[in-house]
Amino acid sequence: MDKTYDYCNLAGVSKVTGEFDNDESILLSYELKKINDYGKSQGRTLVITNKRVYNLAGKKIKRAIKVSDITAMTKNNAEKNLEFIIHVSSESDYRFKIDKLGVRDEIFSVLKQAFADVSK
């Protein structure tokens, strides 16, 4: 992938990147809302690397999912609904709400490319 979308400038934050594998690099980071099983939204940072998807609360990793464990992604195409779901095999899915349609499309594009790269 030629372009990175590190909107949160986390590539230089060792508290985050120190948890990564040596060959792992950030492809995208963005602040959004995670919606829990009870419908409550929580501020989070979504980080996509070439190997994993991370859910951060502040600079603390709450959950890491291997890109290869993602089975599907779903988005709502209603005009003003910017929610999307990352479906994960043998784990609970991730439901998010974002503030910009273009960034949601970037997330889908980056995840698709990362999945294709790890599946080679």
Describe the protein's architecture and organization:
The structure is a single chain. This protein has helices at 14-17, 101-118; strands spanning 5-6, 26-35, 41-49, 52-57, 60-66, 70-75, 83-88, 94-97. With 120 residues, the chain is α+β, with helices and mostly antiparallel strands. The protein has one domain: Pleckstrin-homology domain (PH domain)/Phosphotyrosine-binding domain (PTB) (PH-domain like, Roll), CATH 2.30.29.30. The longest helix is centred in the last third of the chain and has 18 residues, at 101-118. The chain is globular and about 40 Å long. It starts with a strand and ends with a helix. The model has no long low-confidence stretch (mean pLDDT 92).
Structure keywords:
120 residues, alpha+beta, eight-stranded mixed beta sheet
Distance between the termini: 14 Å
The biggest sheet amounts to: 8 strands, mixed
Number of helices: 2
CATH names the topology as PH-domain like
Q: Count all strands and give the number.
A: 8
Give the CATH architecture: Roll
CATH class: Mainly Beta
Q: Characterize the overall form.
A: globular
Give the DSSP E fraction (strand runs of 2 or more residues): 35-45%
CATH fourth-tier homologous superfamily: Pleckstrin-homology domain (PH domain)/Phosphotyrosine-binding domain (PTB)
- What fraction, in percent, of the residue positions are helical? 10-25%
Order of helices and strands: EHEEEEEEEH
What is the radius of gyration computed over CA atoms, rounded to a whole number of angstroms?
13 Å
Mean pLDDT value: 92
